[in-house]
Amino acid sequence: MSEVCCFTSATFAYLDRVRVLGQTLRQHHPDWVFCLCLSDQEPPGFVFDPSNEPLDYIVRVEDLGIRRLNSWIYEHDVVELCTAVKGQMLVQLLEQGAKKVVYLDPDIAILGSLAEIEHLLDRYNILLTPHQLIPDTKRDAIIDNEIGSLAYGIYNLGFVAVANRPEGMRFAYWWRDRLRDFCFDDVPRGLFTDQRWCDHVPSFFEDVHIMRDPGYNVASWNLSQRPLTINTAGEILVAGRPLRFFHFTKIDWVGETMLERYSAGQIEVFELIHWYKRLLKKHAVHGLPAQWWAYGHYSDGRPIPKEHRVAYRNRADLKSRFPEPFVCGANSLADYLTALMP
Amino acid sequence: MPVSDDERRALAPHFDAAYYLSAYPDVATAGVDPLLHYYVTGWREGRNPSRGFNTLYYLRHYPDVASADINPLLHFVLAGEIEGRVATRPLDAWRLRLDGLRSGPPQYADDSRRSDLLTELELRTKLEPALSRGPLIVSVSHDDYATNTGGVQNLIADEERASSNLGWPYLHISPAVHRSVLSEQTAASAYQLGIRLGRDWVGYTNMAILLKALASLRAHTRRVEVVIHHMMAHSPELLRELVRVTACERTLVWAHDFFTVCPSYTLLRNDVVVCGGPPRASAACTICHYGDSRGEHLRRVGAFFEAVRPVLLVPSQATLADWRRMVNFPVTEAHVLPLGRLLLAPSTQSWAQGTEVQPIRIAHVGARVFHKGWPVFETLALSLRRDRRYRFFQFGRADDAPLPDCIRHVHVNVTRDTRHAMIDALTENNIDVVVNWSLWPETFCFAAYEAVASGAFLVTHTTAGNVPRMLVDNALDQGIVLANQAALFALFDSAALQRKLSQSRRRRGTIRLSTGTIGWLRAALGPRAAATHAKMASGARRETSMHV
């Protein structure tokens, strides 16, 4: 196995993003192994051939060895599920012998060398990137960014890197266990999928490195303190440092509003967004029904409301009574919850 | 629903009726009250009441306004402005350019191919009588200079006139199909082109026929000089063949812009920001719309330079320095040939005071196009629309972009026969200041020269290519070079502009056009040849002046 294994986690709806990540990663690190943890199944008539993708291999959610799989999947919405599998996937890669494992969100694109990550993992067990590195000064930015991080987590778990040493393994097992049981978007209860959990990491584990280079994990939530410029040598700089990877979270209308607020009147950020959108168009997934997610609906096609999933995850009696929650028919969970919450 | 008197009074200062009627001709045709139209239906149709307010942006950006079903401009006037809401999309002109970038390679329509091509015999018959008169100039550019207008086209027209005056036949080749990139690699028989001999249109043919005709006529002419003004829409491989077949003395390649360096000939990355021509493998090229095709473009143009080793002609020192920094294509020689020079004398006319009675008259010279800095000028004028110290103008051809009512248009069309028209118009309209905020590195900006020749104070910036260098090289205090847009807006917001004007010695004069390629060739041919050609060219003008 290669020294570095990089993985991402997605459904088919994000396959275009996975392709962009894979392609840009290969441009800078052709020697890294890149794999996808897929939390989805093909719709009828849709053919997915991993050998035609910029992927070394895929791991399907059903291959992660998770007990009572369908019941566990049902508890999660699409974001929660794609996040919840990250812990088990990390453990699996480390147990299979990967020396260094890097996780990247599928909506990230690589724009510079990540060699420093490899080097840092020789010294540190866990690498994390905080959402922000410098305090904001304007009230709106404090509310958007600093208070946002207090609610959603100090570190952005679009990136985490782990060395295959005992302390790295200890982190992986702990994270897997927490995500197995508590990977929910429930901010009022102090949970935001995998992210709030990692606020504990610097306290719980040894040799954790907080990456302070502003070139890593640049996104709308930290642009206010990381002006993005491009010089005549062709370098894209973030707060004066080379851009390594950009996290293209929400590149829709809402996301552009945030970028407008924090782009400091510079067009370069919008150039980057436009480039990414061009790549998404180039790598569009053809033949996939709109809004497709294999676990987004009951077996009869009815979409599963979020409140059904929340009720199920919170009630042990439902899990025990309906071990196959997706299946419709007499005495099904779908009928029970629909009657309960019409 | 009629607009109340109170609402009309509130809206009127923010509603630009002239702009509205210009932008939406259907409203003008209907003959309805434009303000009422916007108030009732226009905003629901996504129309904008002025250049300063974007209806759709406001409604999308502020869902509370959209859900309230209120006229968004009225909301902005009554509440939004005080609440600090934004009326237009930030960087809108720049983002519109990004939105307009095509994805994928350009597509060409096969039906654009012509069937009315000259045969070899027809072409030879038309060319042969002219070729015996003197050295043949074979000139190549991106379009038919006689039927298109622009700086390069005027320059080629001058060149043809100078050449014909010397008795040198001037054969011009332009692509039959316009495209903004190199032509794909193709057989000579598949590449169609248009031919002009002197001022006369000869017809269309293909490169294979032209090459055969030139090869067979080669014996009829003692000397051939090839001048490539632009490779756009041409095939560098076929141009190499043209050079070989003509067995020319030398090949002159002009860098009127940066097309030899990048398919983005203005060096605007993604059509929005000047990039400086970084290495192809750079991150900047990676995210640029032109990045993917630039490698192949450089390979093909580079192979041409490698094979031909031309003489490079550039119109300014600034451009030559940039070109040499960006590519290392081999050339036999490189020369700076400015397209003209300023001849100035002190002017007794004083500057406007910048008062309500005597406002400073400020102009944009040229078309309302992005790379000439129009969005910056327009934004400046909009931001100062209520400032009585200033009045804003645009000099040039009328075009499709509707003007805000704070900018007055003065129609000027500079052609080969009216080269002084812009200087005259600026002078007649008592223009005090010209803002030249070119967003690309100008290689030689006639508009800036015209501005100074008219006696205007020139405001420009450090990365406008030849423009700041022109001020420095001429030791002019009749202008200012600013670092960035923030400095531009600060100059106009403060009293600094009036102060600068009062400290500047005003001069005006003319632009003396250079003798260009033909003058250079005459010098290169040597004194004896030059004398022979001068005798042949009785009545030929050595220089053309544009007098004021």
Can you summarize this structure?
The complex is a heterodimer of chains A (342) and B (548). Chain A is of the alpha/beta class and 342 residues long.
Explain what you see.
- The complex is a heterodimer of chains A (342) and B (548).
- Chain A is an alpha/beta fold and 342 residues long.
- Chain A is built from 12 helices and 14 strands.
- Chain A has 2 domains: 4-215, Spore Coat Polysaccharide Biosynthesis Protein SpsA, Chain A; 306-340, no CATH class.
- In chain A, strand 8 (185-186) and strand 9 form a beta hairpin.
- The radius of gyration of chain A is 20 Å and the shape is globular.
- Chain A starts with a strand and ends with a helix.
- The mean pLDDT of chain A is 94.
- In chain B, the strands form 4 sheets. Chain B has an 8-stranded mixed sheet. A 6-stranded parallel sheet of chain B has the order 14-13-12-15-16-17, sandwiched between helices.
- The longest helix of chain B is centred in the middle third of the chain and has 18 residues, at 291-308.
Q: Which helices and strands, and how do they pair?
A:
The complex is a heterodimer of chains A (342) and B (548).
Chain A: E1 4-10, H1 15-28, E2 33-38, E3 57-60, H2 69-74, H3 78-95, E4 100-104, E5 108-110, H4 115-123, E6 126-130, H5 139-152, E7 155-163, H6 166-182, E8 185-186, E9 191-192, H7 201-204, E10 208-210, E11 228-230, E12 236-238, E13 241-242, E14 245-247, H8 253-262, H9 268-282, H10 306-314, H11 316-321, H12 333-340
Parallel strand pairs in A: 1-2, 1-4, 2-3, 6-10
Antiparallel strand pairs in A: 4-7, 5-14, 6-7, 8-9, 11-12, 12-13
Helix pairs in contact in A: 1-9, 3-6
Chain B: H1 5-11, H2 17-23, H3 25-30, H4 34-42, H5 55-61, H6 63-68, H7 72-80, H8 92-100, H9 120-131, E1 136-140, H10 151-165, E2 170-175, E3 192-197, E4 200-206, H11 207-217, E5 224-228, H12 236-246, E6 250-254, E7 268-269, E8 273-274, H13 283-286, H14 291-308, E9 311-314, H15 317-326, E10 333-336, E11 340-346, E12 360-365, H16 374-383, E13 390-396, E14 407-411, H17 421-428, E15 433-435, H18 446-453, E16 457-461, H19 466-473, E17 479-482, H20 485-493, H21 496-503, E18 507-513, H22 516-525, H23 527-536, E19 544-546
Parallel strand pairs in B: 1-2, 1-5, 5-6, 6-9, 9-10, 12-13, 12-15, 13-14, 15-16, 16-17
Antiparallel strand pairs in B: 2-3, 3-4, 7-8, 11-18, 18-19
Helix pairs in contact in B: 9-11, 10-22, 11-12, 12-14
